[in-house]
Design goal:
Elements (H helix, E strand, L loop, with lengths): L1 E7 L5 E7 L5 H8 L18 E4 L1 H4 L7 H7 L9 E3 L10 E7 L4
Parallel strand pairs: 1-5
Antiparallel strand pairs: 1-2, 3-4, 3-5
The chain binds FE2/S2 (inorganic) cluster.
FE2/S2 (inorganic) cluster (FES) binds next to loops.
Length: 107
């Protein structure tokens, strides 16, 4: 079992820690756990951008890689940065590990 820490991107406070299983998305875990700031309006079809998080590149290795469609959606998000990810596309590919994602304020 792996775990994921959700941090507030503005205050650097830990919001919560949750278990994540292989093939789960970070968005699914966040919604189940009630992480504020991850709304996921489109349910993971990559059309809303309301699941935006920041993830360190080395931790992104725990997840499926970002593809060009995700980059296109991220480009439309106002506070997008080089380490931005759509959490609905962050599918865990490792069985164990700890990841940290930073959650921006809700759009
Ligand atoms: S849930 Fe809509 S883009 Fe991720």
């Amino acid at each position: 079992m792996a775990e994921i820490n959700f941090w507030d991107a503005e205050t650097d406070d830990l919001i919560l820690t949750a278990d994540i299983r292989r093939n789960d998305s970070v968005m699914e875990v966040a919604v189940r756990a009630g992480v504020e700031g991850i709304i996921a309006e489109c349910g993971g079809s990559m059309s809303c951008g309301t699941c935006h998080v920041y993830a360190a590149p080395e931790e992104s290795a725990l997840f499926e890689e970002k593809d060009s469609s995700e980059d296109e959606m991220l480009a439309e998000i106002e506070n997008c940065a080089a380490n931005s990810r759509l959490s609905c596309q962050m599918i865990l590919v490792q069985a164990e590990g700890t990841a940290n994602v930073r959650v921006p304020a809700a759009p």
